Amino acid sequence: FWQPYDKGEPIWMLPYYNQNNNIYMISYVVPLYHQERFIGVVGIDFDYTVLTERIHEIKIFEHGFAHLELNGTVIYSGQKHPGDGDPSTISDKYFHTSRELINGMTLVLSASYDDIRQIRYDIAFKILFIVLFFAFLFSLLVTFIVRRIVKPLKKLTDASIRLSNGDYD
Known about the structure:
Number of helices: 3
Oligomer: single chain
Largest sheet: 4 strands, antiparallel
Number of strands: 8
Strand content: 25-35%
Structural class: alpha+beta
C-alpha cells in the first residue's frame, strides 16, 4: 500500500511469500487518485513461479545461466553457477547481456567465456578439416592431370630414345 503511495506511480513489488495461498507472488500496484486526491491502491498478484520456471528453462550453452534483477538486486537465479550466490561475483568468467522487462525487472543472460571459446575452437577445427580435405582433393586432381600430361611425353621420350638407338619399329 505505502510503496505506490510514496512513489505516486505504479510499481512492481519484490516477490514475497503469500501466507494465504502458500505461494510466492509478485504484485503490480497502482495508486488511485480522484481530482488529485489519493483514494487508495489497486493491484494484481501473479504467481511468481510462472516467471521463475521460464527463467529456469533458459539454457545458454553448457555452463551459462539466466537470472532476474530488480533495482540491482538478484531476485532469482535460473541455474546453479560458480560463486555460490550473487552472479556478479563471477563476472570475470562470464559474458553478460541484459534486457529490461516491462515489469521493471532486468533479465540477465550469462554465457561462460569457456563455452564461447569452445565454439570458436570447434569452428576453427571444422575449417581446418575442410581446408585439409580440399588440399587432399586438389593434390589428387593435380596428380591425375600431371600423369595425363606426362604419360604421352614419356612415351614420346621413349620412342625418341629407341629411334636414336636405331629401332625404327
